[in-house]
Every structure is written in C-alpha cells, then in structure tokens.
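To close the chapter, one final illustration. This time we ask the reader to focus less on the individual chains and more on the assembly as a whole: which components sit near each other, and how the overall shape emerges from the parts.
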Amino acid sequence: MKYLERGYAELDELPPFPSEERLKKKPVAYIECPQPIPCSPCYEACPANAIKMENINDPPVVNYEKCTGCMNCIRVCPGLAIFMLRLREDGKGEVTLQYELLPWLKKGDKVELLNRKGEVVGIGIVNWVLPPERNDQTSLVRVEMDTKLIYEVRAVRKVKE
Amino acid sequence: MVKVVDGRLVEHPILKFNRGKEVTIYFNGKPIKAYEGETVAAALYASGVRIFSRSFRWHRPRGFFCAIGKCSACMMEVDGIPNVRTCKVYVRDGMQIKTQSGFPNAEKDFFGVMDKLIDRIFPHGSQYTKFNNKIFREMLISRLRSFAGFGNAPKVEFSGNADYEEIECDVLVIGGGPAGMSAAINAGKYGAKVLLIDENPNLGGQLVKQTHRFFGSAKHRAGTRGIKIAKILEEELRKIPNVDIRLETKAFGIYGKIVGAVEKSKLLRIIPKKIVVVTGAYERTLIFENNDLPGVYGAGGVQTLMNVYGIKPGNRGLIVGSGNVGLILSYQLLQAGVEVAAIVEAMPRIGGYFVHAAKVRRLGVPIYVRHTIIRAIGKDHVRGAVIAQLDDKWRPIPGSEKKIDCDFICVAVGLSPTHELLYQAGCKMKFVPELGGLVPLRTKFNETSVEGIYVAGDVAGIEEATSAIMNGRIAGIHAVIALGLGGEMAKKELKESLRDLEEFRAGPFGERIICGIEKCILAKEVEI
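The assembled structure is written out below.
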C-alpha cells in the first residue's frame, strides 16, 4: 500500500482505465478508491448495477460496460474519489469532478488542471456545471482538456485574472 | 479567495454564518466588536487577541488549545467571576473581560521575565526547601500562590437564586453528541422516560463542525454532512415527548443511584434507573519545543473556531498528524481559504483514509510521512516551525531539519476518552492503546461493570461518529429492555443493531478497534 506513503496513487495501484472505445461512447465513472474502508453510497446510488461491492468494506469495482454515465455515484461520493471520463469525437477529452471550493466555477471559466500530486499540467475550460445548491453544496464541474490529460487531471483551480 | 472581514469569514463553500446583533465587549478595558452567538474566546480571537493567559510559574504566554471547554488555557475573569472558560461563554453587550494572570495583563506581562530567570533563582520546589524560617516560608508560599494567577474570588456575595430540583427518570443520558442523541432516541421511542443533559448550549457534540460528508452506508446517513446529521438527530429527538433535554447542564458525579448535576445556576439531583455515559473525548497534545506557544492549537479547536464561529484561524497552517482528523481539517482549511503548509506524520504511512489524503494532495498540500515537528518558532506567537525526518528508531535524523513557514500549528495526534465520570462511579477501567487510553470494561451491549451504567461513543473507545451512533443505539435499547420495556420489537432491533456494527467494523480500520474491544470486554453476558 505504497499510496499511503505518498498521499496519491500511481497508475499501477489504480484500477485499469476503460478502453478508448468505451470512453468515446459516453462518459464513464472511474473510481480512485483502492483502500478498504466502510463506505458504500456509490454502490447504493448506482441504478445500473455497475458497481460491484460484496461487503461495505470492499473497494468499489466498476463494470465499464454496464455504466451508463448517469453520474448518480459522483454526486454522492463522500471521498471525492469518482471522476467521469470521456473522449469526444472532436479530439478533446472531458473530466467531470466534484468541486467544493470558492470561488464557484461557471461555464466558460478557464482553470488550471492539477494532477494527483497537485502539479499544474495544463489549462482547461469548464463546459458544464451542476451548481452547488442543487447537490448539497458539492458542485460538479466538467472540464474540457487534451485527450491524454483525462488520465491524470484530478483537480482544478480557477486561473487568477 | 474567500472573503474575510474583521477576522471573520463572510462566505464559505459549505456553511452559512448567520451572525447575531453586533455588541461591544470590553477586554482589559478595551472595547471589542463581537456578534451575538459568538463565544468570548472566539470574539477575542477574531479581533486579533492571541494570548489568553499566562502559565502560572514561568508566565509563558498561553493561547487557547481545545475551544470546547476542556483545556483551561482560556480562563479569564468575566463580569467579576474568576476562572471562567471563555470558550464556553457567549458574549453579551457590555461584558467586562479581564485576563487574570500577569501584570498588568496577560498580553503584556512584566512577569514574563520569569521565563528567563526563575529556574536560576528558584529552581522547582525551592520555595519549600530554601528557607529555614517557617513563618517566612509560609508567607512566601501564600504569596507565590496568589502570584500564580488563578483569579481572585468575587468581592460581592452571590445574590441570585440558588435553585434545586429533583428529577426521577428511567434513563439518564450524559452527553448530547451523536452517541448520546442516538441512545436517547432509541430509549425514548420504546417509552422510557429519558433525561438528556449536555454541558453545551446546543446539541450535536462535535458533529456541529464536521462539514464533510460521512462515510458508511446510506442506511447510516452516509453521503450526508456531519452538520446535517446533527440536525436530523436533534429533530428526531425533539419529536419524542418523553425525552427531556437540559442544555448547559454539567454532571459532576455519580453517587450510587444519584447523579449530581448543575443546570446553569440550579442544582439537579437526578435519580435515574439507568445511566448512559457518552461524554466523548478530548484532544491530546504532543511534546515538542515551544508546544505551549499561542498558535499551537488542537485540530478540533481550529475546527470549532472556523466552522462553528466562522473565524479565520490564520493564514498558513502546519498540520501534525495524518489521521482522518488531520486530513479532514486540512481540506476544511483550504475550503476556508487558509493555506496548508504541510501535513507531517511520524508513522511510515498516512493514518487516515486514503481518499481524504488524496483530496488535499491533489490540491498541492505536501504530506511528509516519517517526519515530526521538532519545535515551534516565535516569541509570543507561532511564526514558523521546524520539522525533521525520523529514522527507524523514531529519532530525528540530523541534517534533515526543514523550516516551515506558518502562523499556526494544528496538533491532530488523536483523542483520549473523557473517562473521569466513569472512573468516579467505580467502573472497572483498563488502559487500551487501541481505544485511545483509559476505557471502561463493558459487555457487548455496552454495559459497564457497574450495573445500569452504559457507555457509547468516544468515551468507550476512540472511533468515529457513525459507530458512535450505532453504539448509542445498542446502549439505549439494552437499557430499555433491562427496564422491561420494548418487548419483542426491542429485542429484535437490538440484535439487528449488533449485526450492523459488526458489519461496519469488518474492514481493516475496524480491526484495530475490535482488537482493542476484545481486551476490555466483560465476560458477564446479559441475557436478552
């Protein structure tokens, strides 16, 4: 469990990514929750039965073929550990993540893209927002970025004007 | 950035701060602006006061530590009454507050020079051995005691009403946190006459500062923020007519079948059939150089200041300890627009949940495992800290020291059960490191070695709020069954609640708790 020495997980400690083909179809939930902890809201929220969890302490396993991209799980995850990934036909990638900081983000905002270690890896544009008041103060933010960045961008910060 | 006016947060991503009417309080004669609903300590902190008292021997400056009435570092004279914990008293227009140690006051204390001199002239205990003349010695000791600054007794006689009330009830619950509310709800719903007392002016215990969403299963309100869980439980509790709630009421002792308590200025003599002790825990501190400097705070103290009263604790903080409390606090600081310089952890790995660590790490907060804090830097307030790496034998590695820029330090190195009441009541206690310290022996239904006294929540072993709610439920239901109430329904629910808890603790985080509980489980099994 090397990830507990660093505070972030390397790719070999995380579940495999959905195939490129699947990512192109529609958004898919990718869960970075490798540690067994007593938590199951994502499993209970999934209407498609795509999240497997035999015991409340099991880490969730997503069946990418069953996942419909409905975002019920990302709305409730208390660990901010779920990300919706998508590859668009026009060659851009999208990551949807939970956002609980001020200032709130709006559609069209320019954001710095941060990887799992908090390093800035690029600039993205917010293209959709679920406002905080509609989801118990946890806003959902969809950010447009270069395709290869969807595998590492896990946080965003508004660019200072 | 988060907007701050007069040291107070005016916006927050999760919380809304509804401040009361503006009032003026006087601190050592100086007027200070405050808002109704703030405690004296919170209002003073917002106005920039950092030194709340002086240590009684060396006259070193002291700030607050816990902010929940446990550490005594914030004691002052309020409207003529000495030794008032200012973190527990709400402001009132025209309130007169004086620091009670130091000359002329604690902030500017000429006796602060003692810190440099006293050990050279009067080494520890020398007042008893240095002088042969008995009269002179006794005079000196009495002078030293008044010099120590434990306040002066009020000069006017008490003129209020000294009321007294006797209350009989089926179940007395001491503590209104998650475990206490859960115990009261579950005992009350089966018809028991319940009295719930809490020393705070509001219910909820430490839930009132937990802005994060809770873990667990949806059945146990996972995905709901702690602040909301407190409200849900309170609503549920207030709906039950046979539950009497007394706030600002402190239990001071259990004497056989009688419990003594003080409600504001009224003495209560409570005669319960069963008692559930859910007094919670207090924060531990850590030994390092200058750990008493104002600016070294308990993690929970900072949470109280920031999430309950909306006061910005500082600009840049260092977090010592990477358990869930330290990790969650780091995230809450970022949400309040406070920078987090680093999280240091002496163990070789992060102690809390990985997802909590990941969400601060990805916002750029460095986490140093196998590191510890060596000293706090600053004269009358923290201006920085020195951390160092530890070797396999937990010794700092020379040359690995790093200076961290910060203006406050949060100590999040765990909690200890507030066990005093149980100890006084004669419950058999045992030191169990896995559970955080001295804990009572108990049956699987949470009854202690003294028949009729139950425990739940952190006082039974440091865990977290969800399991505290489950344990409160077990204690409450078992108490009513023992009283002959509830019938088959209660027995069925008791079995179900035991199974829920077992399932919840089945993972690696529960393993340690189970291991600790095995050490203090009472063989005495009560038939249901």
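Chain B has three domains: 4-147, 164-282+417-519, 296-413. The mean pLDDT of chain B is 91. With these observations in hand, you are ready for the problems at the end of the chapter.
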